[in-house]
Amino acid sequence: MDAELRNVLQRMPKAELHMHIEGSLEPELIFALAERNGVKLNYASVEELRRAYAFKDLQSFLDIYYAGASVLLTEQDFYDMTWAYLQRAHDDNVRHAELFFDPQTHTERGVSFETVVNGIYRATQDARRKWDLSASLIMCFLRHLSEEDAFITLEMSLPYRDKFVGVGLDSSEKGHPPEKFARVFAQCKELGLHLVAHAGEEGPPEYIETALDLLQVERIDHGVRCLEDPELTKRLARDRVPLTVCPLSNIKLRVFDKAVDHNLLKLLDAGLVVTVNSDDPAYFGGYVNENFLQMFDALPLNKEHAYQLARNSFEASFVDSESRRKYLGEVDTFFGK
Ligand code: HPA
Ligand code: ZN
Predict the structure, then answer these.
(1) Which ligand is closest in space to the CA of residue 201?
(2) How confident is the model at residue 120 (pLDDT cuts 50, 70, 90)?
(3) Pocket of ligand 1, candidates 20, 57, 181: which has the most ligand atoms within 8 Å of its Cβ, to mutate?
(4) What is the pTM of this model?
(5) pLDDT range class, residue 41, cuts 50, 70, 90
(6) How far apart are CA 59 and CA 55, in angstroms?
């Protein structure tokens, strides 16, 4: 890739819409927090932990991801984790970020919902003040747990309703279809929350369809397997349902073997509202700009594609219409449009 395109990808204003804040915990911070909190890890060193990041599928990643999150105990821990991510996002010229958080990973360990949300939220407020970087939160339900557990979590979240903008669905996809959470999502919709769900990452295209029909989601997280179903692909394009694609995640979790095998360009060519995101940047080898760079290195993508992806990221975001206009204006100005 030439230096100009590289520079464009790094410097263009962008939104990141698919990242799990617990997936931004770098091994160094995991060890620092473990020490601060007296938590014992099953890894002797940062290097040994990093060596364990050789995943064969989604589940093998999730096992390590949940182990890493076990060092988070205090509000300050959640603040420090979030602040570290926002600093990296700012370095990558992210102007707006939507952060997933997994309360059940923490409440199951006896950490209160309040501790989790207040720590993360406080960091987002500081980032807005310091860099004019806006960040909002999306609460995810763990799909390997029960519907009842999700309802309990929703109930717990209600006093903090003003601190998050939507709900999502993550964790082990196979065997946990969207319909398991249809009633919870219906209640979230009543509450005026935005709705998203992971679907079609490892799971089949039918999960994308049921996420749309039964959960009424506004975006699909991942969704890369939609191309296996031409009718579904047409529907996603026609209805402009955004896909939050995470290229390095897909490669690390063996959804695609190598960067050149990724279907990002095919998704764009199918007319889909594709966005590029980092998913779990500390585990998958890079933050959002690294995802752009590796895709543009591997596939015949050009500056027009970069423009499209930057626009899509704001179009697909949950910002208010005035902010959307402002950000799209920043993109147009950056690209001289
Ligand atoms: N997929 C499902 N659940 C997750 C992921 C993912 O990529 N990252 C963190 N939780
Ligand atoms: Zn994800």
Answers:
(1) 1
(2) very high
(3) 20
(4) 0.98
(5) very high
(6) 8
Residue whose structure tokens are 């390590």: 64
Sole residue written with tokens 């959804």: 255
229: left (phi over 0), alpha (psi -120 to 50) or beta: beta
Q: Is the dihedral of CA 98, 250, 73, 153 positive or negative?
A: positive
Which DSSP state fits 302? -
* Contact call for residues 13 and 330 (beta carbons, < 8 A): yes
**In the numeric block, which tokens belong to residue 232?**
């579904």
Does residue 86 contact residue 97 with C-beta atoms inside 8 Å?
A: yes
Q: Is the CB of 249 under 6 A from ligand 1?
A: yes
Report pLDDT digits (tens) over 253-300: 999 999 999 999 999 999 999 999 999 999 999 999 999 999 999 999
Q: Is 22 in the pocket of ligand 1 (CB under 6 A)?
A: no
Domains located in the chain, CATH noted: 3-335 (3.20.20.140)
Known catalytic residues are 201
- The CA-atom distances, in angstroms, between 187 and each of 193, 243, 286, 296 are 9, 23, 36, 41
Gap between the Cα atoms of 222 and 275, Å rounded: 9
- Which pair of structure tokens corresponds to residue 174? 């196979």
Q: Which tens digit of pLDDT belongs to each residue from 204-213?
A: 999 999 999 9
What's the pLDDT tens digit per position in 167-194?
Answer: 999 999 999 999 999 999 999 999 999 9
In single-letter form, the type of residue at position 85 comes to Y
Atom 4 of ligand 1, nearest CA residue: 171
Mean pLDDT for 233-248 is 98
CA distance 157 to 152: 9
Q: Is the C-alpha dihedral spanning 30, 31, 32, 38 positive or negative?
A: positive
Number of C-beta neighbours around residue 53 at 10 A: 17
